[in-house]
Amino acid sequence: MERNRSYLGKLFHGISTLLTGFKVTGREFFTRKVTEEYPDNRDTLQISPRFRGRLSMPDPQKCIACGLCQINCPNDTIKVVSQIITDEETGKKRKVLVSYDYDLGACMFCQLCVNACPHDAICFTTEFENAVYDREHLKLTLNK
Amino acid sequence: MFDFGIITSWIHEFLTSYLPLGLATFLECVLVGVCIILLYVVIAVIMIYMERKVCAAFQCRLGPNRVGPWGTIQLICDMIKMLTKEIISVRKSDKFLYNLAPFIVILASVMAFSCLPFGRGMSVLDFNVGVFFLMASSSIGVVGILLAGWGSNNKYSLIGAMRSGAQMISYELSASLSLLTIIVLTDTMQFSEIVMRQQDGWFIFKGHIPAVIAFVVYLIAGNAEVNRGPFDLPEAESELTAGYHTEYSGMHFGLFYVAEFVNLFIIAGVATTIFLGGWMPLHVSGLDGFNHIMDLIPGFIWFFGKAFFVVWLLMWMKWTFPRLRIDQILTLEWRYLIPISLVNLLVMVIVVVFKLHF
């Protein structure tokens, strides 16, 4: 396609593509700037919803303790402690979650656990101020 | 329009009434030199600040805003940092040429800078071949860049300098041709005279189509001549670290940096003077009331307003387009810009001969 153009055709094509670029940046110049001046606007901070701040489990009842997140985690960040109990009414055995241990210090925020979860029990929140004074404070139990 | 020449002639009379003529002239030269260098530094600082802010706005950011109101003190801090840094001398470099190079670059830049007419009677160098002198003196900068590349004893510097030599010498051609197009229209090369001829309309309006083409060609060639924008090959940081100023540190680097920004302003200033009427206000023939209001705004405000607008256009260009390869740069120059400006010159000659201009 490019080869078939004549000298002047190439010239005008070039000018029109350059003008397209000018249009894009020219519009960008006048749009509202996306910079968040973080410590100043802590109250009104806008973080994009898909930002992976830290793992959380909004509703522990949803978790079936299948352990898929633990298997999928590349860093052994998650440890699912489960227990087999027998339902008294039906007499069936069932796995229940005892504690969902999550080590924030080892997490690399890859989101593989969230993708693996069959019941959408876990998700990433946009809370990002994760700094603490002791490494022990990074070991969280999410179902509490 | 207020004539700044009244002030300069008053200073001249004041000095000659107390001192012999030779001494008075010498003193005036020193005074003018100090003024021009101060203006040079101030413009460099404004340009660097503007570059940061405009670049940020084009990338949808805010730019510097922490040090001082709107980040204005940031520049002062950077300047102090640059002035206090150590100047490292490179082993096995050509010491003399290595140290000489930044001064040649800055000399060329100051010489070209002093040609600009900032207002009525407010120009340092103003003689009958002004445009010619400006082109010649701004070309000296290439020598400085080549010396910097050669003197550093560094292959990246040398490659950068060779590229910049090829690029600047090529682009000077189409920049001069586009200036020549307007000189055909004005039949003078004196800057003050060129501005005076634009009293009843700027040349970009008077010369219509060929003038607009020449303006665009001049902006492209000018941007390439100062090694900026999509044409910053000599300092292509991804391949050549920093090009010809790789080995420079401290204020020697600072001189290159400042010269680059003021060269950009000079390109904008020349474009303003030649195409946009310099310090001449916007006059529309027939609307006398409007012209009178426009006359109330001082000339140097018109000049700087237009010049910074052209600078903004050049920055828009720089922050829009990706860098060209060396073969693309030379193709653009030799296969597109030169033929276009030659044909454009011919068109302008036809326009002038048949009196088709306004």
The biggest chain-chain interface is: A-B, 14 and 15 residues
What is the H-and-E element order of chain A?
Answer: HEHEEHEE
**What's the CATH topology name of the domain at 54-141 in chain A?**
Alpha-Beta Plaits
If you compute it from the alpha carbons, what radius of gyration of chain A comes out, rounded to the nearest whole angstrom? 25 Å
Separation, N- and C-terminal Cα atoms of chain B: 23 Å
Quaternary organisation: heterodimer
What does this structure look like?
The complex is a heterodimer of chains A (144) and B (358). Helices cover 24% and strands 20% of the residues of chain A. Chain A has 144 residues and is of the alpha+beta class. In chain A, the strands form two sheets. Chain A has a three-stranded antiparallel β-sheet, with no helix packed on it. In chain A, strands 1-4 form a two-stranded antiparallel ribbon. The radius of gyration of chain A is 25 Å and the shape is elongated. The mean pLDDT of chain A is 86. Chain B has helices at residues 5-18, 21-58, 73-84, 95-113, 130-151, 155-186, 191-196, 203-206, 208-225, 237-240, 250-275, 288-296, 299-318, 326-353. With 358 residues, chain B is mostly helical. Chain B is built from 14 helices and no strands. Chain B starts with a helix and ends in a 5-residue tail after the last helix. The model of chain B has no long low-confidence stretch (mean pLDDT 84). The A-B interface holds A 11, 18, 21-22, 24-26, 28-29, 31, 33-35, 37 and B 54, 56-62, 65, 316-317, 319-321, 336.
